[in-house]
Amino acid sequence: MPHADAPTPVPRRPRVRRRWRAPRIPARSITREHMDALHDFLLRRTAYLLEAHPPGTEEHRMADTLHRAIDQTWAELQDCYDFYHRGDADMEIELAGTWNSLRMFGISWMRAPDYDERLWPPAEYEDLLISSIPTEH
User: Could you tell me how far CA 112 lies from the centroid of its own chain?
Assistant: First the structure.
């Protein structure tokens, strides 16, 4: 029987297997090829669902909603891309965020044979804006 003043054993955390993750790329490295390939991949999935389920069914409505959300995110991504490549460096954050949002629509298909995680890696950005706020004494 342990003494009352003995330390309580700390439970060990179970080991978690790590799955391979694509390395992040800088947002400035995203190309139209990345954007169009991912968009096409996702729309093939939603087009199949739209055809497989009759209009008016819950499945058709959900596929239509997903289809529209993908299209809208892709259009926003194109705008971010265009502004960034016209010299608006502040758009790098938006470009990375919107790219990662479009990627999230495809996460459920990561194990599909035609999902290309190397072509659709997560984006990161370097926020180089460092400012100091003067403090009053």
Answer: 17
